[in-house]
Amino acid sequence: MAGAGFGVTGFPHLVQGMGHGVRANSLIQLAVVGLGNKGGAHIKDLFEEPGARVVAICDPDRARLEENEALFKERGREVGCYTDYQELLSDERIDGVVIASPNHWHALMGIWACQAGKDVYLEKPVTHDIWEGRQLLKAARTYKRVVQAGTQNRSDDGFRAAAEYIRAGKLGRILWVHGIWYQKRESLGRVAGPQAIPSSVDYDLWTGPAPLEPLRRSRLHYDWHWDWSTGNGDFGNLGMHQLDDCVWILRKTGLPHRFFSGGGRVSWDDDGETPNTQWAVFDFGDVPMMVEVRNLPHKRGVDYMDSLRGVRRGNVIHCEGGTFIGGRFGGRIFDASGKRLEQFPGDGGATHMANWLQAVRSRDASTLRAEIEDGIGSARLCHLANTAFRSGYGMTQKEWMAQAEFHAAVEAAGRSFGEHLARNGMDPTQRAVSFSPWMHFDEEKSVYDGGDVSVNLIANALVRRYYREPFVVPELV
Ligand SMILES: NC(=O)c1ccc[n+]([C@@H]2O[C@H](COP(=O)([O-])OP(=O)(O)OC[C@H]3O[C@@H](n4cnc5c(N)ncnc54)[C@H](O)[C@@H]3O)[C@@H](O)[C@H]2O)c1
Fold first, then answer.
1. Which among 34, 182, 262, 319 is placed 20 to 30 Å from 302, CA to CA?
2. Residue of 135, 95, 101, 140 whose CA lies nearest to 118
């Protein structure tokens, strides 16, 4: 804990009481914000959560509001329905908000909630850019709120047991870690021009801090992940879990000495912007950490995906005395000969929300498994990687592999990355994918420095976004 280096000191273990007079044994009253895949799942889970009650829901899409309101009616329950998040925040019944809106809204919603005296469960990535992290942390600390990041693998009982085993030194030193999520996705295709916004959606509220531009893809919901103004690509989506797992295992709260990232939206010519294949290397000096996402199949024309040591989503944590393979839902430890030493069955992080609710009740934020400072730290590494990709330039495989030569495991991962791309049609001799050179981010000054000046120039413009009035992350929280 601590050390995200934002100059916000004094982690408040015991934070201020719930804003609206909730007593230690009464129901915690919640609002769920953003009613898509994840918000819907949170509502269903919270129906089963003793001690908490969802009293309000919020989404600028009235159709989604009505669908979800119906779930409450089926149970004979009333729920307050809001399209405007700021109106919801003035609802005095609400003690805490569970935020599952698109990423570009996360930090602002989190900050406003803290200012309104609500506790927050905030989906990953908890920020959309680096600057937001500082402001969100200041808000959590200033208003003494209990804020949990939605990186639930930290609550997986199997992964936790494995982490304890590794941290106890039973496998010796950690030598390198590699988090992967290989999940097939399809190209979005191309639309001919601006698309109609569904009539049920208040697009101004949906867009919030992002530029209010015509929709240039077929689907508004979910596919915002692939547009830099609203999402963070699959690296900030599925990759975010693996990145957080690796950081948590390594107990890294600060920044790497140097990092690079590369990839591309390979073999698709469509309306999406973000890479469908991306690899990032973070060099912490003592140990390299790699995170990788692949959306393309093993090779052109097949349906199945690659795997790494038998997994398609998970982490390989390589130690002196053996290797852990797994993450969410636990995993296994093997010795150097491949013999299984231990098995840790997991629960998928099922108690992550309950962990937040307990801390909301006790006011002891130190018991949170993904306290917001940790969530901000992991999101920041995701932004470093995405910024590296976006500020990079075309490199041949030989050129980007030269950067991997400092470590055998990184070199092997780079080779595998190149082979995967080649099987999907990339010519390794062409500058077909974009890579950054090694980069460095100065935590105190909040600037990319050293290395390639022109790359840093592009990167520094991405530290803080332009906010559309009145949806502005405040300078002073
Ligand atoms: N922790 C996990 O395992 C996990 C899994 C899936 C998604 N997520 C996260 O949850 C978030 C939502 O993902 P999703 O797949 O449900 O996306 P989605 O597009 O299906 O849903 C997002 C919803 O937010 C709504 N929204 C937009 N602006 C809003 C506003 N101003 N106020 C309230 N609601 C607003 C949208 O209308 C939409 O209904 C993402 O940040 C994603 O990273 C986390």
1. 262
2. 95
